[in-house]
């Protein structure tokens, strides 16, 4: 399994930006597809963005398209989520996850809180 540690969360005003990072350790990072998910209080965990092993393909939830960008640096074993034009409804705990590329994820980080004030 791969171990994942998120960072970069915080409090930001609406319209602002944050960049989340997820550092991986353990097995070969480039063998995993990676994803970002989020969970707001009282709600289920939702998919936000995904990226293929090579970084050549990316996927986004409709709610974040055009505002968020997922990227990865396999040399640094890190995946990023650049979040721009943040809205109060983006407030949630954000988790990164690693998977085999079939749309399922089996390794998760501990999460990082993102709070967007209006």
Fold and architecture overview:
This protein has strands at 2-7, 10-13, 18-26, 33-39, 46-51, 58-60, 68-73, 78-83, 92-99, 105-108, 112-117. It has 118 residues and is mainly beta. The strands form two sheets. Strands 2, 4, 5, 6, 9, 10 and 11 form a seven-stranded mixed sheet that branches. It has a four-stranded antiparallel sheet with strand order 1-3-8-7, with no helix packed on it. Strand 4 (33-39) and strand 5 form a beta hairpin. The model has no long low-confidence stretch (mean pLDDT 96).
Structural class: mainly beta
**Number of beta strands:** 11
- Indicate the radius of gyration in whole angstroms: 13 Å
Biggest β-sheet strands, sense, barrel: 7 strands, mixed
Tally of individual helices = 0
Strand content: over 45%
Fraction of residues in helix? under 10%
What average pLDDT do the residues reach?
96
- Give the ordered list of helices and strands: EEEEEEEEEEE
**Shape from CA axes?**
globular
The poorly predicted ranges are none
The first-to-last residue Cα distance is 39 Å
What key attributes describe this structure?
118 residues, mainly beta, seven-stranded mixed beta sheet, 55% strand
What order do the helices and strands come in, and which of them pair?
Layout: E1 2-7, E2 10-13, E3 18-26, E4 33-39, E5 46-51, E6 58-60, E7 68-73, E8 78-83, E9 92-99, E10 105-108, E11 112-117
Parallel strand pairs: 2-11
Antiparallel strand pairs: 1-3, 3-8, 4-5, 4-9, 5-6, 7-8, 9-10, 9-11
């Amino acid at each position: 399994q791969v171990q994942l540690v998120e960072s970069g969360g915080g409090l930001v005003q609406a319209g602002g930006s944050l960049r989340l990072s997820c550092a991986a350790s353990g097995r070969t990072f480039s063998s995993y597809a990676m994803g970002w998910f989020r969970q707001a209080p009282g709600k289920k965990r939702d998919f936000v963005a995904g990226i293929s092993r090579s970084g050549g393909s990316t996927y986004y939830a409709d709610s974040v398209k055009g505002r968020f960008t997922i990227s990865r640096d396999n040399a640094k074993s890190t995946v990023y989520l650049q979040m721009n034009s943040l809205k109060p409804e983006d407030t949630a705990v954000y988790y990164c996850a690693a998977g085999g590329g079939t749309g399922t994820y089996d390794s998760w980080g501990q999460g990082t809180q993102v709070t967007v004030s209006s």
